[in-house]
Amino acid sequence: MWAIAALSVALTALVLWKIWRLVWFGAWSGGRHSAEALDLWARGDRAAALEALAGRHSLRARLVRAAMRAAADPHMSDQQAQDETVRVARGLLAQARTGLRGIELAATIGPLLGLFGTVTGMIGAFQALQEAGARADPATLAGGIWEALLTTAAGMAVAIPAQVVLAWFESVIDRLRLDMEDAATRVFVARPAAAEPAPAELAHGLTAETRAKLAVAE
Questions:
Q1: d(Cα 22, Cα 100) in Å, to the nearest integer?
Q2: HEC readout, 130-186
Q3: Per-residue pLDDT of the chain (218 residues; tens, 9 = 90+)
Q4: CA distance 210 to 82
Q5: Torsion region of 76: left, alpha or beta (phi above 0 gives left; psi -120 to 50 gives alpha)
Q6: Nearest-CA neighbor of 207 among 100, 47, 85, 105?
Q7: What span, in angstroms and rounded, lies between the C-alpha atoms of 87 and 184?
Q8: Cβ atoms of residues 38 and 49 within 8 Å
Q9: Long-range contacts of residues 198-205, Cβ cutoff 8 Å, at least 24 apart
Q10: Which residue, of 42, 139, 145, 180, has the fewest CB within 10 Å?
Q11: Based on the number of CB atoms within 10 Å of its own CB, is 172 exposed (0-12), middle (13-18) or buried (19 or more)?
Q12: Angle at 34 between CA 171 and CA 22, to 5 degrees
């Protein structure tokens, strides 16, 4: 029970930290500044678009800023610029997923700790029953079993909320990834003319290969 209690405290702290982290990353901000920068970018005002994102720490803004810089670099082809954007996106999504392993671990080992407590409790209860011999009191055995099963219930009480929170965080990060992919596509649709002509398959935003890379970036 002490181990399960410590696990629940650690899980609560991790979930609160993760919520704060996602708020800092702008997971629920809606990407207003990124949308404004993309509108400026589409109208051809590249400097103002980059200025609108200066100092922004949300993941959307950081990816859009990186994509704009890559797209505006005349020394990069479309594919090189998109590869650089995917590289940045992978790093940002890795930051967004930090801590999910810990929550997943808590959801996994919570029931196992409870089961371990139940098994050891049952062993103790049956040992006491054996020592009592013919004078065994069924109430004593029932009390030992009740206490042993309590650890299983406690472990499940930790694991179920952990699994729910994990699924919620996963959905938030998936939505963030889709928003980042959409923003990067809008950047490359309106990319400034490069010194070298871009391949025809890159003329309309992200290529299928780049989309696949971004989809697995998480």
A1: 12
A2: HHHHHHCCHHHHHHHHHHHHHHHHHHHHHHHHHHHHHHHHHHHHHHHHHHHHHHHHH
A3: 888 899 999 999 999 999 999 999 888 887 788 888 888 888 888 888 888 888 888 899 899 999 988 888 888 888 888 889 999 999 999 999 999 999 999 999 998 988 888 888 788 777 777 776 666 666 666 666 777 788 889 999 999 999 999 999 999 999 999 999 998 888 888 765 543 443 443 334 555 555 565 565 55
A4: 7
A5: beta
A6: 85
A7: 12
A8: yes
A9: 198/77, 198/78, 199/78, 199/79, 202/78, 202/79, 202/82
A10: 139
A11: middle
A12: 35
Cβ-based neighbours of 42, under 8 Å, separated by 6 or more: 186, 189, 190
The token duo for 180 is 């980042």
Please report, as a single letter, which amino acid is at residue 99: G
Are residues 195 and 74 in contact, defined by beta-carbon separation less than 8 angstroms? yes
